[in-house]
Amino acid sequence: MRDDFGREAKVSSSFLRYEIAFRYAEPSPITGFLGGLLLESESLDHIRKGEAVRHLKFPNRKTNS
Question: What are phi and psi of 8, to 5 degrees?
């Protein structure tokens, strides 16, 4: 298998959890801010393969393709 840069690569998989939270900010006539969504927090965490089955909402199994 070759990666996008043409280098030899070993096929593997990773399980990650991406969480993002927004909050609504009210318009402010003082600052002129029109209001809208603001990014409150963001995280990307690794999930160990042994724990993945508890987190995944779909079947995960090795295929012979």
Answer: -65, 135
